[in-house]
Specification:
Strand content: 15-25%
Bound molecules: zinc ion
Order of helices and strands: EHEHEEHEEHEEEEHEEEEEHEEHEHHEEE
Structural class: alpha/beta
């Protein structure tokens, strides 16, 4: 029988659970979660709805356990989901993770930050999803993780932060891992550290998920025998926007923990109609997209996951290996886009035309500073200045 791949929507879960025999051949399962229909936005209705989602996901967990041919599982909240009342129960996510069969060696959990602790009577002890994930990561070849909060408990126990006086950090072993990506980006910035790992009182600036996850993964990668020498271990985040200095760009940073290098990609908003964002990817290349999620996908690179034409989420490598079609890329080449939209201008392009030099590009950071979250800055060439009155945006001759 042909291997089967399925993208499941929330409303399909009950019929999926009701027909266990027809699911046994499944090779991959993607659960695409979006805000479910609410009776109203009254707190009572929102709470009832979120509780129903929890119960439905828990039933799904029971139906996943017997799928002993399942190679890949993804729980994915598509970007730009208008789910501000939508809370995905961490208890339910934990039951799904705990139900994954031994055959499952690719795992994505991307909640778009919508995972929440279950509160109220009978909800039990709070779940720490990093600890739940730590129990299944050793069986994985590919994993991509993005949760509301994250910390080094994903990869070990002990000191959750660098420079901690507490016990040393004891990493787990990831003998099968080939590609791991932890996406710590939240809006333009970084997701918080988990409450279980946060320091009280919080230092200033407070440690966040990037500090803790990179600390854990770097310790794991530097201890001999913890991971294959060829494994790609990446952590991604974004710098915040700096509205006081327009020469500083929001920068997506992907750190490659094994090689202790990182790639930094500057991003800027170009226009509202058509919606366009630019990103510079290094060596003079520029891409434009109407969708910032496509820029993040590009920044995640080969360690990321792709969406196949039918909504399946799979590691980039598996999509190619299994011969599946991917969705059309939402990226345009910068020069092609600019030729088709000649009236659209960004100050970067204006400044570069003015002085005749390229002023900004993607950057590779090597060695000690590879975990730096310094944003990329538009260069000010010799003979030019940036008057403060224009938020340092526009070049003027000296
Ligand atoms: Zn955690």
């Amino acid at each position: 029988m042909e291997p089967q791949d399925m993208a499941l929507l929330y409303d399909d879960i009950d019929s999926f659970v009701a027909s266990p025999a027809s699911n046994l051949e499944l090779r991959s399962l993607t659960l695409r979660l979006t805000q479910t229909t609410l009776l109203s936005h009254e707190p009572q209705d929102v709470e009832t709805n979120n509780l129903q989602v929890e119960q439905t996901l828990t039933r799904l967990a029971g139906a996943i356990a017997p799928l002993n041919r399942l190679c890949a599982f993804s729980l994915y909240v598509p970007p730009h989901n208008s789910g501000h009342h939508f809370e995905i129960s961490q208890t339910a996510i934990a039951s799904i993770i705990e139900s994954l069969p031994q055959s499952c060696v690719s795992l994505e959990i991307d909640t778009a930050g919508l995972d929440h602790a279950t509160t109220g009577p009978g909800s039990g002890a709070p779940i720490h999803l990093c600890e739940t994930l730590r129990t299944v990561l050793p069986q994985m070849r590919y994993a991509r993780l993005s949760l509301r909060t994250m910390c080094s408990s994903l990869f070990g126990t002990g000191a959750v932060l660098p420079q901690s006086d507490a016990s040393p950090y004891n990493p787990i072993t990831l003998p099968n891992m080939q590609g791991l990506l932890v996406n710590c980006k939240r809006a333009w910035g970084t997701a918080p550290i988990c409450a279980a790992s946060a320091q009280t009182p919080a230092p200033t600036p407070a440690w966040d998920s990037w500090d803790s996850v990179t600390h854990g993964l770097q310790t794991l990668a530097t201890e001999p025998g913890r991971v294959r020498p060829t494994a790609n271990l990446c952590v991604l985040t974004s710098t915040p926007q700096d509205n006081s200095d327009k020469s500083k760009y929001v920068t997506l940073i992907r750190a490659d923990i094994a090689s202790q290098t990182s790639h930094a990609f500057p991003v800027a908003f170009v226009s509202r109609g058509p919606t366009a964002w630019l990103m510079r990817t290094g060596e003079g290349r520029e891409v434009i997209s109407s969708d910032t999620a496509a820029l993040v996908d590009a920044a995640e690179g080969q360690t990321g996951w792709a969406t196949a034409g039918n909504g399946l989420r799979l590691p980039v490598q598996l999509v190619a290996k299994w011969g599946l079609e991917t969705r059309e890329s939402a990226l345009d080449d910068g020069s092609v886009w600019r030729a088709s939209n000649p009236r659209k201008m960004h100050l970067l392009w204006y400044n570069e035309k003015l002085c005749g030099e390229r002023l900004l590009d993607g950057e590779m950071r090597v060695g000690k500073s590879y975990l730096s979250r310094e944003p990329l800055v538009e260069r000010t060439p010799a003979g030019w200045q940036r008057p403060d009155t224009l938020l340092r945006a526009q070049l003027e001759p000296l």
